[in-house]
Amino acid sequence: MTVIYQTTITRIGESAAEALSDSMLITFREGAPADIEAFCFIHCHGELSGSLRPGSRLTLGEASYPVTAVGDVAEQNLRELGHITLRFDGQQAAEYPGTVHVAGPVPQAIHTGCVLKFVA
């Protein structure tokens, strides 16, 4: 498998962990507007070197999740803004254009220094 995107979580907005209780994880690159940053896991932006698609895998720390659906603008948002909304629900069709759905349990805690990557 080839790594197509890799980044490291550098800050966690004060309300970011609340989204985990809704089976969501929202990311944005460093330099996000303050009102958005509060709800995001902030990371040092990596370069997207391939396509996000069902069948890819997300790794978050030691956990690995199969990608089940990718919204129409999720790849562009990740490439340009480091922004992506991950849903841990295994849906086969993207609920929103910027959402990537994965199958597996919602992470209980994410800490700074955690590595997020997509492999194809």
Give a summary of the structure in a few sentences:
The chain is mainly beta. The protein is built from 3 helices and 8 strands, in the order E-H-E-H-E-E-E-H-E-E-E. The chain has a single domain (3-119), classed as M1 Pyruvate Kinase, Domain 3 (Beta Barrel).
Q: Which secondary structure elements does this structure contain, and how are they paired or packed?
A:
Elements: E1 3-12, H1 16-20, E2 24-29, H2 34-37, E3 41-44, E4 57-60, E5 63-70, H3 74-81, E6 84-88, E7 99-102, E8 115-119
Parallel strand pairs: 2-3, 6-7
Antiparallel strand pairs: 1-3, 1-8, 2-6, 4-5, 4-8, 5-7
Describe the structure.
The chain is mainly β and about 120 residues long. The protein has one domain: M1 Pyruvate Kinase, Domain 3, CATH 2.40.33.40. About 15% of the residues lie in helices and about 40% in strands. The chain is built from three helices and eight strands; from the N terminus they run E-H-E-H-E-E-E-H-E-E-E. It has helices spanning about 15-20, 35, 75-80, and strands spanning about 5-10, 25-30, 40-45, 55-60, 65-70, 85-90, 100, 115-120. Strands 1-3-2-6-7-5-4-8 form an eight-stranded mixed beta barrel. Helix 2 links the parallel strand 2 and strand 3 (about 40-45). The longest helix has 8 residues, at about 75-80. It is globular and about 30 Å long. The N and C termini lie close together (about 5 Å).
